[in-house]
Each structure stands twice: as structure tokens, then as C-alpha cells.
Design a protein that fits this description.
The protein is built from 3 helices and 4 strands. Pfam families: CRS1_YhbY (PF01985).
Length: 96
């Protein structure tokens, strides 16, 4: 579980990132979860954008991604979800 201080730190790091995944009409599927998991292993911190044609609400999308990828939810801002997962191989982010 992330502390408030760690979340603040990660939010500041995520500020400059662009979303690399988009959740659209199909919602969250297995393939997407697998790809996001691989991206988290490489980058540790990613943004996922929720398109307006997505049928599910952003909270349930975030919940599915967190559970599917075993990641931490840093923040939901607007239609963007910020996820963090400590990398096994490429650990670069050192949490405060």
C-alpha cells in the first residue's frame, strides 16, 4: 500500500507522462491487462486514458486494472488513471 507521501511523489513524476493506453468501448479485457502489466514492468509508472465512448465508469475501470495487474492506483484525474507497480527487473523509481 502506498502512503500519501509516496502517492504525492508518484503524482509529480506522472505529471509529465502521456497516456500510453486507452480504454474504449470494449472496456477492460485480458489482452489489455497483459499489455499494461508488461508496460508497468518496463516503466513502473504509466497513465491510462479512458475514452468518452467507454461504457464503464472510470472507478470500475481503475479497479479492474489494479486487480488485473496487481498494481497500485496512484490517482484518477479527469479521464486519466495513473498506475504504479514496482518493477522486478528494471527498478528505477525510488519511493520516499
Amino acid at each position: 500500500m502506498l502512503t500519501g507521501k509516496q502517492k504525492r511523489f508518484l503524482r509529480s513524476k506522472a505529471h509529465h507522462l502521456n497516456p500510453i493506453f486507452q480504454v474504449g468501448k470494449g472496456g477492460v479485457n485480458e489482452n489489455m491487462v497483459r499489455q499494461i502489466n508488461e508496460a508497468l514492468e518496463v516503466r513502473e509508472l504509466i497513465k491510462v486514458s479512458i475514452l468518452q465512448n467507454c461504457d464503464e465508469d472510470k472507478d470500475s475501470v481503475a479497479e479492474q486494472l489494479v486487480e488485473g495487474c496487481d498494481a497500485e492506483l496512484v490517482q484518477i484525474i479527469g479521464h486519466t488513471i495513473v498506475l504504479y507497480k514496482e518493477s522486478r527487473e528494471n527498478k528505477e523509481i525510488v519511493l520516499p
